[in-house]
Prior knowledge:
- Its EC number is 1.97.1.-.
- Activation of anaerobic ribonucleoside-triphosphate reductase under anaerobic conditions by generation of an organic free radical, using S-adenosylmethionine and reduced flavodoxin as cosubstrates to produce 5'-deoxy-adenosine.
- Belongs to the organic radical-activating enzymes family.
- Pfam families: Fer4_12 (PF13353).
- Keywords: 4Fe-4S, Iron, Iron-sulfur, Metal-binding, Oxidoreductase, S-adenosyl-L-methionine.
- The chain is of the alpha/beta class.
- It has one domain (2-147): TIM Barrel, CATH 3.20.20.
- It is 22% helix and 22% strand.
- It has helices at 49-59, 74-86, 99-103, 106-112; strands at residues 2-10, 18-23, 45-46, 62-67, 91-94, 117-120, 141-144.
- A seven-stranded mixed β-sheet has the order 3-1-2-4-5-6-7, covered by helices on one side.
- A hairpin with a 7-residue loop joins strand 1 (2-10) and strand 2 (18-23).
- Helix 1 (49-59) runs parallel beside helix 2 (74-86) and helix 2 runs parallel beside helix 4 (106-112).
- The radius of gyration is 15 Å and the shape is globular.
- 38% of the residues are buried.
- Iron/sulfur cluster is lined by residues 26, 28-30, 33, 35, 38, 67-69, 96, 122-123.
Amino acid sequence: MRILDIIEGTSVDGPGLRTAIYFAGCLHECPGCHNPQSWPMDAGKEMSADQLIEITEEADADVTLTGGDPVYQAAEIMPLCRELKRKGRNIWLYTGFRYEELMAVKVSRELLDYIDVLVDGPFIERLHDRSLLFRGSSNQRLVDVKRSMPGRIVEWQSDF
Ligand code: SF4
């Protein structure tokens, strides 16, 4: 997997103090993107699932997959997510795709089996709102994946 960065103890990419893994590669080209240096697919460095597990276990925190858009590496990310779930981690995933698009493709649908909350959709500058929790623009949803299905999206609710 191509990894740009790993930030431990972040509180802006989901509830609690989490380990955020930034995956390289994004083709959405959202105007106003906060991180255009993440767009090249070959940015960052190659890391294995074992290396990432070692880091997340040392941090002993839940995990957020962000970027870039991790979904471009969905097949490679799957073993990492499987192991994180086996260790009982809560996983959030940020993507420029919408939930319905991911559910329509086998590899991303399978990836969602391991995801607790999906923050979906492209960043839209005119819908940018700093007051939104854990997302940049109001079109983006916090999808409670376990309770959602196409045609019936259940949004994640904060309990704080
Ligand atoms: S999906 Fe995210 S990383 Fe990709 S262009 Fe849009 S804002 Fe930037």
